[in-house]
């Protein structure tokens, strides 16, 4: 989504072909190669869907034009798509957490977050007046209320008891858990960077094409300069897009996704000490 160009995806594929043998010797390299292959395929499919080919759009009536399903200039639609991607990424994270707690009643808390995040998305789309399918499903409030109840009652590890202190402690854990509402809202909005960076990449590619086209009209020297502009401009844009995909992809995984799904790990901190002999 950050590349947003099928031409850049094919360039990635060419790089993968050149590195294929080098990435086929060890288990770690094979895993990296498979990840690279998945990225190339996903980038190519998305680039075809948005109709970007090194910044150029396919001709009207062509086969490639018929495959275009998304309009990068439709900011509202692309923002909604980015938020939907974010919501389902967080849903997956909470389902992972629910699976980890499957032997405890605590698994109901992440399922509550699944209901709340999904209900919040549906409620937000209803307020925005789209899409029609969401308006036909009047379950957003029920998902929000039911999810909040599950988070309130099952966020802690304390066993159920009729003792007033245990009930109070459990409710306190639940209230603390519900403070994550603002975090969920912010995490979903953080996925808007997918649209923003993709739009920036496509506009840069289009700009370099326009500059090269204008320069090429000057004459022979203009054509040579235009070729240089295309090579340098698209090379720079491709590099920035790949770096952006790595940096922001890692950020969305390590901060937004892992904060909802990764189990605690590591070693307890022990301060450095010096023991003097007696």
Describe the model.
This protein has 11 helices and no strands. The protein is an all-alpha fold and 278 residues long. The protein folds into 2 domains: 135 residues, no CATH class; 115 residues, no CATH class. The model has no long low-confidence stretch (mean pLDDT 86).
Radius of gyration of CA atoms, rounded to a whole number = 25 Å
Whole-number count of domains: 2
Fraction of residues in β-strands: under 5%
Shape summary:
globular
- N/C terminus separation: 65 Å
Q: Report the strand count.
A: 0
Percentage of residues assigned to helices = over 70%
Structural class: mainly alpha
Biggest beta sheet attributes: none
What does the oligomeric state look like here? Answer: single chain
* Contiguous uncertain segments of 5+ residues: none
Order of helices and strands, N to C? HHHHHHHHHHH
- What number is the mean pLDDT? 86
Helical segment count: 11
Put the structure in a nutshell.
The protein is mainly alpha-helical and 278 residues long. It folds into 2 domains: 6-70 and 192-261, no CATH class; 75-189, no CATH class. The protein is 72% helix and 0% strand.
């Amino acid at each position: 989504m950050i590349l947003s160009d099928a031409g850049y995806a094919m360039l990635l594929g060419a790089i993968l072909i050149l590195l294929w043998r080098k990435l086929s010797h060890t288990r770690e390299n094979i895993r990296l190669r498979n990840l690279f292959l998945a990225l190339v395929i996903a980038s190519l499919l998305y680039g075809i869907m948005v109709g970007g080919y090194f910044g150029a759009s396919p001709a009207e009536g062509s086969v490639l034009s018929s495959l275009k399903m998304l309009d990068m200039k439709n900011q509202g639609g692309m923002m909604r798509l980015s938020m939907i991607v974010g919501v389902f990424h967080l849903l997956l994270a909470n389902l992972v957490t629910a699976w980890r707690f499957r032997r405890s009643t605590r698994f109901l808390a992440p399922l509550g977050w699944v209901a709340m995040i999904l209900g919040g998305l549906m409620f937000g789309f209803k307020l925005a007046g789209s899409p029609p399918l969401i308006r036909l499903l009047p379950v957003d409030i029920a998902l929000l209320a039911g999810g909040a109840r599950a988070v309130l009652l099952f966020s802690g590890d304390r066993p159920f008891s009729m003792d007033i202190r245990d009930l109070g402690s459990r409710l306190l854990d639940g209230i603390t858990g519900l403070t994550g509402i603002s975090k969920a809202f912010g995490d979903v909005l953080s996925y808007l960077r997918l649209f923003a960076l993709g739009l920036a990449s496509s506009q840069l590619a289009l700009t370099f094409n326009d500059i090269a086209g204008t320069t090429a009209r000057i004459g022979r020297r203009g054509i040579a300069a235009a070729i240089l502009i295309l090579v340098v401009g698209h090379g720079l844009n491709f590099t920035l897009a790949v770096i952006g995909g790595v940096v922001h992809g890692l950020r969305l995984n390590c901060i937004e996704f892992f904060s909802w799904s990764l189990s605690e790990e590591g070693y307890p901190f022990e301060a450095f000490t010096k023991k003097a002999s007696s």
